[in-house]
Amino acid sequence: MNEIESSDHTLCPVARSEAVVGDRWTVLILRELFMGNRRFETMQAQTGATPQMLAARLKKMEADGLVERRRYSERPPRHEYHLTAKGEAFYPVLLALRAWGETWCKSPKEGRAVYYTHKSCGGPAGLGPVCESCGQPLRREDLTVDLNPAYRDEREARWAAFKGGR
Amino acid sequence: MNEIESSDHTLCPVARSEAVVGDRWTVLILRELFMGNRRFETMQAQTGATPQMLAARLKKMEADGLVERRRYSERPPRHEYHLTAKGEAFYPVLLALRAWGETWCKSPKEGRAVYYTHKSCGGPAGLGPVCESCGQPLRREDLTVDLNPAYRDEREARWAAFKGGR
DNA sequence: CCATATGGCTATGGAGATCATAGCGACAAG
DNA sequence: CTTGTCGCTATGATCTCCATAGCCATATGG
Fold it and tell me: How many helices (H) and strands (E) does chain B have?
């Protein structure tokens, strides 16, 4: 691949983004971080990534400025991963991806996995970029999240299976 | 990987989406389709994918219901790839990805690669999910697209290089 | 006719990424 | 002083992806 063909040297913002997040695991890790899951072990359980994949991806994400590695215990040394501003700014993409998945990658009877409520107006936020109740653009800090019980169970089962199988 | 850990059997809409579009090439192909580039050869030139990758991805995308393969010439047999409704619906994700890339994956002096104008109000649409000029949610059919001259040159150079090197 | 061009792929072999499984190091708790 | 927890690293097999080359059916020009 010569210089001009390489996506490392393109002006296209989509290709630039894909060079950073164009990877199943990276997106799933971001999902976990947005759900408040900041620890290696729990991310491993919920994404299904192998420990090397997870370690490698977190390292790349740190290098790309998406996450910050913070020590939360000195002895034993323990770390948590926190989103940077750049990582936080990825939220709209995840929201759009989620809306597309809920709409186009499910059989109708499954129902939604996640429900958002718009704090500002108290109504359901829906699947669009603006609140379906009040029409205001959705910002992460204005949303409360509720998981479908089946989805919550799925996540708990994954954690139980992970802990059991070590 | 057991059943519950497999992302094929999760309720999570993000994981469902990633199973379909969680791939650099698939997203770049979608970008080309949204730019109106529907032919194998030109997509190969602009994405930099090898012909097998492109053929494999287009086949998978057809199986996943994102694109439709249409014959535009009987003899010699020639095809074009068209977005389905499911493919079209991916537009907001690409828009969000583009906004993130323009904002977070560029040095300030580079400038935007793509400018959107909001037909409904005549003003620039900006980078958010709603028009920065009039505040209305952005729909694809209400937007006109202008490429930065440098980006246009880059694309023309890629095509020239591709045709030259065969 | 025959050579060359065009568009849409397929074939091959090697390089690199990813996987499953196992284990380590530092400490805490019992 | 054994067992458990957390955050990884090591190893070897497998699988994907890439670069390069070529094929097939048809137009097109000489």
Answer: 7, 4
pLDDT (tens digit per residue) in A52-81:
999 999 999 999 999 999 998 887 888 999
CA B88 to chain centre: 10
Q: How far is A76 from chain B (nearest CA, A)?
A: 29
Distance CA B29, CA B2 (A): 32
User: Alpha carbon of B22 to those of A77, A95, B17: distances in Å?
Assistant: 34, 15, 7
Domains of chain A: 1-89 (1.10.10.10), 91-166 (no CATH)
| CA A133 vs CA A60, A78, A95, B64, B150: distances in Å | 39, 43, 17, 32, 42
CB of A14 less than 8 A from some CB of B: yes
DSSP label at residue A49:
-
A36 touches strand C (CB under 7 A): no
Let me know: does B113 contact B151? Beta carbons within 8 Å. yes
B77 band by pLDDT with thresholds 50, 70 and 90: confident
Per-residue tokens: A44: 């491993």
